[in-house]
Amino acid sequence: MSSSAGSTRVLTLCADLFFALGIQRTAEGLGLAVDRAEDLDDLVEKVKAPGPTFVLMELDQWKPGAVKRLRDAHGEGLSILAFGSHVDRETRAAAEAEGCDAVMPRSAFAKDVVGHLRKWTGGGN
User: Which residue from 32, 43, 8, 38 is spatially nearest to 113, judged by alpha carbons?
Assistant: First the structure.
């Protein structure tokens, strides 16, 4: 699925289908289109399209080198927010050190999905 011309694309990599659907419905309510990747390789392929892109990545799907692969595939105009278990501080720290624009516990992301989507995509409706 692609966004309207000039808007930020939203790509998700989230194994929890119910959570991913909640993100998608919230984004669509803001007038944003969401494209869900099946795995990291699929996300790297999807991120190659030009234009501003916002990636939401569940840390259960993150692997060392993921951020570099995404940035190399896309170039400028890529923002990455990663979220995961509040007890997995080590993975969150590694993702942050690797260059994610924001890394947070899943609960913090879930509390303000609308706010995060607006912040990283430039508004929505």
Answer: 32
pLDDT at 1: 39
- Who's near 73: CB < 8 A, 6+ residues apart? 44, 45, 47, 48
Give CA–CA dist 124/108, Å, rounded.
20
The whole-number pLDDT of residue 124 equals 58
Identify the sign of the CA torsion 113, 114, 119, 124. Answer: positive
Give the pair of three-digit tokens for residue 109.
């992301």
The CATH class that applies to domain 9-120 reads alpha beta
pLDDT along the chain (125 residues), means of 10: 60 93 94 93 94 92 91 93 90 92 95 95 71
> In this structure, what token pair is assigned to residue 14?
């989230």
User: By 3-state DSSP, what share of the chain in percent is helix, strand and coil, each rounded to 5?
Assistant: 45, 20, 35
